[in-house]
Design goal:
With 505 residues, the protein is an alpha/beta fold. Helices cover 30% and strands 14% of the residues. The structure holds glutamine. Belongs to the amidase family. GatA subfamily.
């Protein structure tokens, strides 16, 4: 299979292959010595959980978003997803390191210093970001499941770099209540594990011990973007897979699309090989259909994302002013001059990348720049969504199939639809264009270069679609030796996406 060890899919690395590394946990519960009679009975469904530190945990664990501005902050509430998972048997092992407020692709923009993978004797490798700490905790076998957040790829990219499974659900499926917002219209809670079945049981929840889970059903009235129950049932009614058992055999029924625009020049040849080996395997061994498809707006998606996400971030982060939220700069607080407190608190509290995004977002939302940037980016977002709707066999239950109008298109987009439309079930593509780089190479990397890593993950985010990164082993020298292949599905086709991913294992 030309360098792609498909057997590795879903298989956890052995203990020898994964060694401890520092800095992926940034806070952990104090060890307690429970009295023998208060020890809860261990049931098989209990599991250990790491929680990305931008997801609120109440009680003794702070929620810092890896930012100095929230240093020591303890949330008065617990995120709904944490409460739900605790009710399903999760015990929290600790809070994990991330890029400050989720902004980054290598977990290097953290007030706690970077998270990384590799043993202390080895050259550290990027853990990916922004949920890098969660990914390393899972890869090191320290927890069964980890929560991350995925705004533009922050669960899928670290999963690909560290060789674990990373799943981003459909937007609106998992409650965001208690998740510190970065870019609300894109933010989703995501799941990292070595085992797809564990994630599938929690989400689709029709089989096994966690049968009562079925997180897809749970509307949260505290989150205005959580899909209502009638909408959930309507969406699921048009989908299979919430009750189906998935076997390798089932893959025969599936048509996979290969989006040609993802075959970019910058794609590492080893990843390209793994991608074509995966496609061949699906076709030849599993009897699936594999066809080329075209998503013409892919090229514009990354730029649109880096306009929309910072714009929303600049608004979300306005509340950290040392008065409403945030660690106040006390020296400036005693200064009589108005405005000094804000500037000093924010100047000292935020890291460089966060400041860059706030400036960028404030600019693109300003009256003179808005039409040129923010509004155009929203139009591109609509086109990205339409590209996906055009190739998927299933309708998007939230949108009418949009009619094609030439005046909608930016001039740069090719009008010719070379390869389709093909009515496919899922798209198969790489998760990231390169293998995990050495940490030293990315520590001082220009921000725009690191934005490149998100080129394959942001389109599904802009369209709110479910996507999963599945690990494949790659022959490589001095790297982590793993890469991710990504499956993207139509909106609310999560159960089938997870089922198909599991069947590929
Ligand atoms: N790397 C992207 C960014 O910095 C994605 C982050 C995320 O998904 N939280 O915005």
């Amino acid at each position: 299979l030309r360098g792609c060890d498909w057997d590795y899919v879903i298989m956890p690395l052995t203990a020898d292959e994964r060694r401890r590394h520092l800095n992926h946990f940034i806070s952990q519960p104090a060890p307690s010595t429970p009295k023998p009679d208060s020890v809860p009975p261990q049931t098989k469904s209990q599991f250990t959980l790491a929680v990305k530190d931008n997801i609120a945990t109440s009680s003794s664990l702070p929620t810092t978003c890896a930012s100095n501005i929230l240093s020591g902050y303890v949330s008065p509430i617990e995120a709904t997803i944490v409460t739900q998972l605790r009710a399903l048997g999760a015990s929290i092992t600790g809070k994990t390191n991330l890029d400050e407020f989720g902004m980054g692709s290598h977990s290097t923009h953290s007030a706690f210093g970077p998270a990384s993978q590799g043993s202390s004797e080895e050259v550290p490798i990027s853990a990916g970001g922004s949920s890098g700490g969660s990914a390393v905790a899972v890869a090191n076998n320290e927890v069964d499941l980890a929560l991350g957040t995925d705004t533009g790829g922050s669960v899928r990219l670290p999963a690909a770099y560290t060789g674990v499974v990373g799943y981003k659900p459909s937007y609106g499926m998992i409650s965001r209540y208690g998740v510190v917002p970065y870019a609300n219209s894109l933010d989703t809670v995501g799941f990292l594990s070595r085992d797809i079945k564990r994630i599938r049981d929690l989400i689709a929840g029709n089989q096994g011990e966690a049968g009562r889970a079925g997180l897809w059903k749970h509307h949260d009235p505290n989150d205005p973007t959580s899909l209502s129950l009638p909408a959930r049932l309507r969406c699921a009614g048009q989908r299979q897979g919430y009750t189906k058992r998935w076997e390798k055999e089932s893959l025969k029924e599936i048509k996979f699309g290969i989006p040609l625009e993802y075959n970019i020049e910058e794609l590492d040849p080893k990843i390209r090989d793994a991608w074509s080996a995966g496609a061949e395997l699906l076709q030849q061994e599993f009897g699936a259909k594999v066809v080329p498809v075209s998503l013409p707006t892919t090229k514009q998606a990354l730029a649109a994302y880096y306009v929309i996400a910072p714009a929303e971030a600049s608004s979300n982060l306005a509340k950290y002013d040392g008065i409403r939220y945030g660690k106040r700069d006390e020296e400036a607080a005693s200064d009589a001059a108005g405005g000094v407190l804000y500037a000093a608190t924010r100047g000292k509290g935020f890291g460089e990348e966060v400041k860059r995004r706030i400036l960028l977002g404030s600019y693109t939302l300003s009256s003179e720049a808005m039409d040129n940037y923010f509004i155009k980016a929203q139009r591109v977002r609509r086109l990205v969504r339409r590209d996906f709707n055009r190739v998927f066999a299933l309708e998007n239950p939230l949108h009418e199939r949009e009619t094609f109008s030439l005046s909608d298109l930016p001039e740069t987009i090719e009008l010719e639809d070379k390869w389709g439309p093909e009515e496919v079930d899922f798209l198969l593509c790489p998760t990231a264009p390169t293998l995990a780089p050495k940490l030293a190479e990315v520590m001082d990397q220009a921000s725009v270069d690191s934005y490149m890593n998100d080129v394959f993950t942001v389109p599904a985010s802009l369209a709110g679609l479910p996507a999963i990164s599945i690990p494949v082993r790659i022959a490589s020298e001095g790297g982590s030796g793993t890469a991710g292949l990504q499956l993207i599905g139509q909106y609310w086709d999560d159960a089938r996406l997870l089922g198909v991913a599991e069947a590929m294992a």
